[in-house]
């Protein structure tokens, strides 16, 4: 296609929006089907099968079980990457649910947005000489699927990536994008000595006391950490019966920080607390740091986010002015991807009440209402426009790359 014949960006965006609109019934059905059959991390077999079937219905072959993960998925459009000059954008899908409360984080919306954006943008990107992938990433909630895919080389040939995450209210994140915390998990099992709790308690060493001491001590750390840091945990095993001194008890803690260095330091402080609880109770602490990969703080690429915002605003959405980064917040393994390649992760309001926030069962119900379907269609069109713009606009690629290089942030977690 000659430069003279190339359509304008506005015309391309309009064509992509029309393509996504034609997909509306199928995307709404996908979001509903995932909602109706939620699957937790690494168990998303039916979810992946539904996505692969929808892609196949549009002539796209998808590889389920990609990257050595049973519930990962990959589909690609465009020429093989035989030269570094072929720009490659990856659209990221998530589809795992939360235990007990289903798609209360809206990953059914994330999947529908990603599939819609890929199907709309793939033929355009391929025609214009770029490369586009849809990468389905399992277990964002509990297993760090994106980091596992990174370790398997799944992003080695990717130049930039993007996804959209639903949130409360009707607005969206600012041009600056949202900031997330990194998170590390610290699991602990205390080993004591069983005894009759009434007949001979002096013979016992109470592992539950150790867990309670650890829990309270971690709670006391909270008044001495940065406002952007978070500590929280649960007791996962508290013993077998009240009349048996618990010889084994366990807990799981999440350590969050907006800075990688602080994440390491705060984790060390939590580990010291757990060791102190064992010393205080005469038990032994078995500590497992990072039973799943750490999630790194998200590094939003503002050049790419601005392009998404432009396309999303053209759909009739009001974009708020840039705001100061929030004090703390949730975590995502998209942060790991964002440290590897320029990435976007804008939030998407679903038209519900501001006080219905993800990880509440009521939020799952919002994801299948008409307002949520409208939002996901608009977000898919904007994400498709961003992917096409990245693969066709050298100036956008240069701006995204320069910003990424200037960040100076570590690209990988190093133990």
From the structure above, extract its key features.
four-stranded antiparallel beta sheet, six-stranded mixed beta sheet, elongated, 40% helix, single chain, alpha/beta, 415 residues
Can you describe what's shown?
This protein has 415 residues and is α/β, with parallel strands linked by helices. The chain contains 11 helices and 12 strands. The protein has helices at residues 9-36, 45-57, 107-127, 145-151, 207-221, 260-281, 302-313, 334-338, 361-366, 370-392, 394-407; strands spanning 63-64, 73-77, 88-94, 131-137, 160-162, 165-167, 182-191, 230-237, 248-257, 284-289, 343-344, 347-349. The strands form 3 sheets. The chain has a 6-stranded mixed β-sheet, sandwiched between helices. A 4-stranded antiparallel β-sheet has the order 8-9-7-10, with helices on one face. Strand 1 and strand 2 form a beta hairpin. The N and C termini lie far apart (48 Å). The mean pLDDT is 93.
